[in-house]
């Protein structure tokens, strides 16, 4: 079975939704065929030709009678190929945020972790956001102040227009003990951000920016 990442699944989902909208709004057969070819070219690289079950599901997308409801049913079947986010242990999480006193970590046992490229939660009492990102260097823990003010803007993590708030993290800037505030306007709702994430390069860039010394 081919394994894909959550953000790749969301990319595939977005491509399929565009295809459904084309089926529902376009009459020109040539245009429809072009969109079908582009969609297939976008989706196929994620799956091995030997993965017969996945290939069978993918073929079902290319049907002019496809509806949003039916596409979601097919996508749900394809979702079993998604590698879920691996939640670090309590000890690992505490180590990631060792400077935080009385850390409150949510219970993710009932969460469908196949939807998440990164984990995040808000501490309303301290107006803080905590993020766990699994990078090539291992788990990275990021936390900072999340403003209560909201506005519409492009989130640098998922690259979609969303309701965003300013997130600021204190970063140690050198050996002299000084700290620098770094951050940006990011999705207020981290669950929505994960649902909108179709690549992870910008997430990794954001993590690197906050950890830069």
From TrEMBL:
It comes from the Bacteria. Residues 3-86 form the Elongation factor G-binding protein N-terminal domain. Residues 98-203 form the Elongation factor G-binding protein C-terminal treble-clef zinc-finger domain. InterPro entries: EF-G-binding_C, EF-G-binding_N, EF-G_N_sf. Coiled coil: none annotated. It holds the Pfam family FBP_C. This is FusB/FusC family EF-G-binding protein. It comes from Enterococcus gallinarum. The lineage of its organism: Bacteria, Bacillati, Bacillota, Bacilli, Lactobacillales.
